[in-house]
Amino acid sequence: MSLQKLTDKNLLSTTKALVQKEKRLTAKILDHFDEIDRRKLYSDLYYHSLFEYAVKELNYSEDQAYRRINAMRLSRRIPLVKQKVETGQLTLSNANLLSGFLGSVKDLSKKEESAIVSEISETSKRQCQDILNGHLKERGITPPKRKESIVDAGVSDVRMCVTISKKTLGKINELKALYGHKNIKLDQLMDLMADALLDQKKRERTPQRKIQDKKLSCDTKVRNMDNNHGNCDGKDNEKSHLLQIKTNRRPYISKSIRFEVFEKYKNKCALCDSKYYLEIDHIIPYATGGSSQVENLRILCRNCNQREGVKLFGVDKMTAPGRVKVEHRPAV
User: Fold this and answer.
1) How far is CA 154 from CA 131, 147, 151, 186, in A?
2) How many domains are there within the chain?
3) N or C end of the chain, less CB within 10 A?
4) Is 210 within a domain?
């Protein structure tokens, strides 16, 4: 039936019913996001993150994707959030504000968190912000004035808005004073700081060429045997004993091998080309007997690494509390 033929009463009632259905669907979408994130399914589609998947695959705007993912992660922490979103008592905007608040306040109990959720339910965004700012002031925390943002400011430039501490500002001013004879601008200083930090991290990845001769400890012997396919003076019984000692420990990968693997994969994920949160991964898992030789190693971003683990060992095993994270050794 055409909407134009509906009576005023029916039009209002059907609209209200659709809005209630939309709220229930939003809660279901949060559930689906949670499970997709748990399985890291977006990695199979070569997306670097759940956020990128939501924007590029599901065609959400960046703001829509951000608020939904924030609400989903908040509902993991506080189950009451999902219930409030489903009933429409808690908007995604207010859930986003609460998420930022909890990032500033670390000492709340589960009961106190749920109480704040109830307190900001059925409030406007401004009312919610006032309530949360009140809690911050009670704890002696200055409410944030501006949020970080990055916007285009031309073909080769961007404009940034970021809040920093007075201590950090003091360090920046001290650096500017050291470069005072050059009358350096803030953007130039930031460029120099970024270059210096990048050089430092690259040097840390470079293997040391000279290693002092030291008496091998039990753990070092195990590491060497892994890198030499277990041949340590032909003493298989010694290896067996040492392997028992290293049970549930991460496989040792020398700095020189790590450097070679990063060079081989050009410092990016072998599956999705991401350059962030890179980790060493065993192609044949270490847990199933794979070696720590260069041929059996590759670079994966954290999400792709976790997704590969889910496919091999199952999502329940990979997300079990207290599991030994053998495969997820952070990159140097």
Assistant:
1) 39, 22, 9, 18
2) 3
3) N
4) no
